[in-house]
Write the structure tokens for this entry.
Amino acid sequence: MSDDTMRLYNLRVSVHEIRGRSVCGMSVGDFFEVHNSDQLSVPEGKHFCFWAMQAVFPLLAGKMRRLPDGDWLEQDTLVCCPDPEEGLIMRIDRIGEVELRTTDLT
């Protein structure tokens, strides 16, 4: 890796558990992915709740990077949806690594 490149993880955010009722219509196993630092995709014909996404977005930039072993974000993978009636728990998984040129990003 040269000075103008960096390695980031691609991520999958999936519905891990629903402890309440799924008002938004999601099911365990539904997911979205982020590739190449900024490309979000949802499988064709599926959806992912906007409000659940907004709960997990602040953590994604950190999860894309290798962090020190003792860092809480390196260890933790579960995030709660903000709707308490749903009790929707999401899991962030690293699904691959990509090398990007820093000059290609802003």
